[in-house]
Amino acid sequence: MAQEDLVLGVDVGGTKVAVAALRGVEVIARAERPTVLSSSQALLDGLEATAREVIEDSGPPAAVGVGVPSQIDYGTGTVETSVNIPLTGVALREELGDRFGVPVFVDNDANVAALAEARLLGCDELVMLTLGTGVGGGVVTGGRIFRGAHGLGAELGHFTLMPDGPPCPGNCPNSGCVEAYCSGQALERDATELARAVGITATDAAQALLALERAGLVDASRARLTMLGLARAAALGGRGSGGPRVDLTHARPRMRSIGAPLAAAPASTWDRALARSATAEASAFTAAEH
Predict the structure, then answer these.
(1) Cβ proximity of 241 and 184 under 8 Å
(2) 74 within 8 A of 111, measured Cβ to Cβ
(3) Residue 258: pLDDT above 50?
(4) To the nearest whole number, what is the mean pLDDT of the chain?
(5) What is the rounded distance in angstroms from the CA atom of residue 182 to the CA atom of residue 89?
(6) CB-side exposure of 188: number of CA atoms within 13 Å?
(7) What is the Cα–Cα distance from 189 to 202, expressed in whole angstroms?
(8) 165, 133, 155: which is closest to 242 by C-alpha?
(9) How far apart are alpha carbons 281 and 286 in whole angstroms?
(10) CA 162, 253, 206: angle at the middle one, nearest 5?
(11) How many CB atoms lie within 10 A of CB 217?
């Protein structure tokens, strides 16, 4: 596909659908709407309506790239399993191809985010965690997405950390997996419990945890989870579920000291990862590469 072709990127998350039209790396238009979770059909109708809104501003795309938090049969573009959105069994590539009348490319949302980040950074080896309603993982090796035999090769959010830990907040049957500790849902749970215990709002609780961490009064594991998550309660990583942002300027040196990987990343990577969700743009990169 030519570099100057207009492509549409779609990020379907458990909280919002984000759509962006890109030409090269320039964002021409974008829109976000809440994800409709009542049924597969309702979700697809909402996705199409959001995409049509962007197309009205940008013009028709040459192709569409879609990232979803799901296991994908990449050969057919069919959703095999989906823990946070009702798309299991949907032939998504075919369905959206019929709706938009252009080639459609479908992959796991963390896969497309990892691929886009690798292209932007100019590297062939990259591991990425995406934080939002759930936790996704993407691996690029040799310049290509690693999917594994069944498309689950990089489902890093469902690796078990503590077998007797809390249940996964998604539909995953695991307990103590990564998503149970540092997804938006899990961190909302923790912040809400803390806020309830001390009689303050969840956002105030998040700010208090950051202040305690800066003072060295919170252990490293809690600090890492707090500063890499609180996606819904304090709207941190990826602007997870909307709402006010927490200022991490003073926390970044401490994050570096405890090994949080984004702390040592270039400023552009930091800004992309924490200031906004870029998976819609990443999905467009996937479409543009075909």
Answers:
(1) yes
(2) no
(3) no
(4) 75
(5) 28
(6) 17
(7) 9
(8) 133
(9) 9
(10) 55
(11) 10
pLDDT tens-digit map of 206-219: 666 666 656 665 54
Cα–Cα distance between 66 and 91 in angstroms, integer?
12
Q: From the options 3.40.1000, 3.30.1050, 1.10.10, 3.30.420, give the CATH code of 124-275.
A: 3.30.420
Three-state SS sequence of the chain: CCCCCEEEEEEECCCEEEEEEEECCEEEEEEEEECCCCCHHHHHHHHHHHHHHHHHHHCCCCEEEEEECEEEECCCCEEEEECCCCCCCCEHHHHHHHHHCCCEEEEEHHHHHHHHHHHHHCCCCEEEEEECCCEEEEEEECCEECCCCCCCCCCHHHCECCCCCCECCCCCCCECEHHHHHCHHHHHHHHHHHHHHHCCCHHHHHHHHHHHHHCCCCCHHHHHHHHHCCCCCCCCHHHCCCCCCCCCCCCHHHHHHCCCHHHHCCHHHHHHHHHCCCHHHHHHHHHHCC
Q: Cα separation of 216 and 227, whole Å?
A: 14
Q: How far is CA 25 from the centre of its chain?
A: 19
Domain map of the chain by residue range?
A: 6-114+277-288, 124-275
In the chain, the largest separation of any two C-alpha atoms, in whole Å, equals 57
CATH of domain 6-114+277-288: 3.30.420.40
Identical fold for domains 6-114+277-288 and 124-275, yes or no, is yes
pTM (whole model) above 0.70 = no
Give Rg (Cα) of the chain.
19
Single-letter amino acid code for the residue at 269: T
Cβ–Cβ < 8 Å for 112, 137? no
Q: In percent, how much of the chain has pLDDT > 70?
A: 68
